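Chapter summary example.
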Amino acid sequence: ETAASTAELLIPVCTSGDTRLELCPLDEVIYCDPVSLVDVASEEIAGKKMSHSGISYDMARALGIRSLRSHMASSEELEFDQLGQHEPLTLRLKNILREYQDDSGIFKELIQNADDAGASEVCFLIDWRRHPCSTLLSPGMKQCQGPALLAYNDSVFTEEDFQNIAKLAARTKETKLDKIGQFGLGFTSVYHITEVPSFVSGDYIVFFDPHTTHLGDHIRNQYRPGIRMNVVANPHVVAKFRDQFSPYQDVFGCNVDGERPFNGTLFRFPFRTSEQAKKSEIKQAAYDRKMVLKAVACLKSVACELLLFLNNVKCVRLFELTEQARSPKPMKQLLKIDLSQLDAGPAIPFRCSRLQLLEECQNAVLTTSCRSVSSTSASLIQINVFHGKNL
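The structure predicted for these 391 residues follows.
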């Protein structure tokens, strides 16, 4: 069927009281998903007719009826930039993860990337909350509103950073000897735990969707499966799709209100659910509490090693937020590594072996405790790195 013939279709539409049948041209009809959006978008559907209630979502898509969500948040209207990795991603990512199997090293990779960006502070949050799903950019994003790992650092993405993170193996670090991350491969380790990584930095919010199934119509190019949106330039989007941005609100000072840029970077990695794992072409394993605890234990184990390699990061902290929390305020600190205290202490002799330096770092860890807690909370770990006195 040609586009011309499709455009000539007449579609049944809703009428007052639903007492008569009315047909309208395809380009004058929109499909409502969900009905609750009708009131929100009442001023935006002028001149358009709602498709008849007897037309299902699948039929609407088959007929080419534009959805209300798409009408409200079309990529053209919101000035989306398509931003996503450039290769057929799912198979490529699966192969990378097969070679890069250490899923418990995600914390380390994110810390190293933040250090490369010049950040001085890195904070992690294990967020067990489930966020509302009524006003999302696309129905597929509902699967991403559950528990997640959030990672904050106090650097802001440059335009070069945005382009590099979209590449599977960015080569820009290759000639920069002060950069310790493994090009773009380190970031791909997040796909061990998530299907849709996202982040807020400066004026922008970015979503990557390698399967192109979560963002729906917003993915215009399957070879660049992601979007970047300037939320400061589009405050009305935040107001209309408030639930989409709620997981970031007030986490480490992030406030996606469309009024001001965020002076930092906040990543969010929704844990892969069992439902997503069944359909995933990247990794067929859900990321559960047991795996989260394993990753936290790994962060503890590499604390001293980080002292040897970090150039800029001086403080690393880990927090947890329970499923019952209504805001990020009651987050509980599980771990703190304060390297600034080490800098203030006695100097370590310059002429010493790596083993001696590591021993010095280990001696600086004066307090280490680890205990298991209930199933509703991650392991409690506290590491204070300092010289001479308790923090």
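To summarize the output: Residues 170-183, 343-354, 364-391 have pLDDT under 50 and may be disordered.
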